[in-house]
Amino acid sequence: MRLRGFSHALGRIPIDLLHARRLFLAAGGHLAGACSRGRTRRKRRPGNGRGVAAGLSSRREFRTQYIRRRSQLLRENAKAGHPPALRRQYLRLRGQLLGQRYGPLSEPGSARAYSNSIVRSSRTTLDRMEDFEDDPRALGARGHRRSVSRGSYQLQAQMNRAVYEDRPPGSVVPTSAAEASRAMAGDTSLSENYAFAGMYHVFDQHVDEAVPRVRFANDDRHRLACCSLDGSISLCQLVPAPPTVLRVLRGHTRGVSDFAWSLSNDILVSTSLDATMRIWASEDGRCIREIPDPDGAELLCCTFQPVNNNLTVVGNAKHNVHVMNISTGKKVKGGSSKLTGRVLALSFDAPGRLLWAGDDRGSVFSFLFDMATGKLTKAKRLVVHEGSPVTSISARSWVSREARDPSLLINACLNKLLLYRVVDNEGTLQLKRSFPIEQSSHPVRSIFCPLMSFRQGACVVTGSEDMCVHFFDVERAAKAAVNKLQGHSAPVLDVSFNCDESLLASSDASGMVIVWRREQK
């Protein structure tokens, strides 16, 4: 019958919607019969197209009735709710099948190529966000637009584990495409792999003022940027030799607290103690736009939405988190929330549906982020330690083949680096372990190593107030320290690896940036 095309399309919908299809088919048979009987009464006259036109009209009418009836049944089914056990079973089976077929979920760095391809298509929609923010039909029960699928962190951990259950012990890499990453990482132990040959270069253009942030460009080996409390941002190029400062971005009237690269590295966004954020073109260094903080407060941190780079999240000294549309320069309606203290750290998960924010009172909040509108819904709160500022948050979908749970790396002024497990899709955190460092007052940051998912063990890197860069193996039960780099003369505030881990950059409170070269095996 003419249901073939629709049946083919329905074959792609989730299992929990097939019940609606069966209900329709039970009623649709009579509808199809009525349409068929209507067509049999019409006689086609030779030499004209009335019979053909009547058939096409009937098809269109049937299609309209079919869609209306299907929509009605889907709405009724949605109101009735889905059996939780059946839904969980379906998600588990789907996750296992997808994991076995395509490998585990990608890390943010490896997903950037895909993200870049869809950012352009999303920008037009995001520029028109105000057009549908007030549409009540777009809102869920709690006033929050739900994504098609937020994904489950419990399911994600199961997927990461399921990929390897049937693999031989020597199979380290989930797909052939990951062989390149494994080759870059080196088939060695963590201690051998993170041995450094010494300093590659030292940048001292910001001496006498702290450099709170240093970052390599996305998927780039030799382009680096750092911001300073002297109010400027430096863009540096490491190759060809000698390394040089390409340009210095000036415009902020007070210290620059944070900055971030866009996915395509064509723009940077920076936040400053002068209560403004600025959008910069990395190609020529010009300031595209200056956006004042909605509260007129010092801006302390920022991050791009991983997929929709038209949105940037900022945190300020008046305890507020704001989602800003950098194309319009306006705050997104519903994209603000208040924390218990000054917002010092922000981090998204890889898909961009969960946001974590840390404040100077020792709390970490998780938010559900609406992918369509940029609205925030507060989900969970964790008190790391009352009164201890949370200065850094880094999220990772999975750490290694031994540690397959989604994880969060947190610096707080506790003389410890903390590793948390993300246990559900609302961002609930569970402490996994901690590592000793010196941090009691400075805004020290840490990172996950970009290639650690493809080798035995897993490594994290952090700054410290003892003027050293520390490497830790998160899976080693005893003696987790892997390496320590010495060379700074002030507390190390931030660290950043390039995309293939051949170079590591670190910045300190005296304004010095050191680029370290890893030993080649």
Based on helices, strands and strand pairing, what is the structural class?
alpha+beta
Number of helices: 8
Q: Low-confidence segments, ≥5 residues, pLDDT <50?
A: 1-21, 23-49, 104-151, 163-178
Total beta strand runs:
28
Q: What is the 3D shape?
A: globular
How much strand?
A: 25-35%
Instruction: Give Rg in angstroms.
Output: 27 Å
Mean of residue pLDDT? 78
Distance between the termini: 65 Å
Q: Percent range for helical residues?
A: 10-25%
- Major sheet: arrangement of strands: 1-28-27-26
Tell me the major beta sheet. Answer: 4 strands, antiparallel
WD repeats: 249-290, 485-521
Protein name: WD repeat-containing protein 13 isoform X1
Pfam family, one: WD40
Region (Disordered): 36-55
Give an overview in words.
With 521 residues, the chain is an alpha+beta fold. It has 8 helices and 28 strands. The protein is globular and about 80 Å long. The termini are far apart. The N terminus is likely disordered.
Brief rundown of the structure:
The protein has 521 residues and is of the alpha+beta class. It has helices at residues 4-10, 18-40, 50-80, 84-102, 112-127, 153-165, 179-185, 190-193; strands spanning 196-203, 213-216, 223-227, 232-237, 244-250, 256-261, 267-272, 276-281, 287-292, 299-304, 311-316, 320-325, 330-338, 343-348, 354-359, 363-369, 376-383, 390-396, 407-412, 416-422, 429-436, 446-448, 459-462, 468-473, 481-486, 492-497, 503-508, 513-518. It has a four-stranded antiparallel beta sheet with strand order 1-28-27-26, with no helix packed on it. The chain has a four-stranded antiparallel beta sheet with strand order 2-3-4-5, with no helix packed on it. It has a four-stranded antiparallel beta sheet with strand order 6-7-8-9, with no helix packed on it.
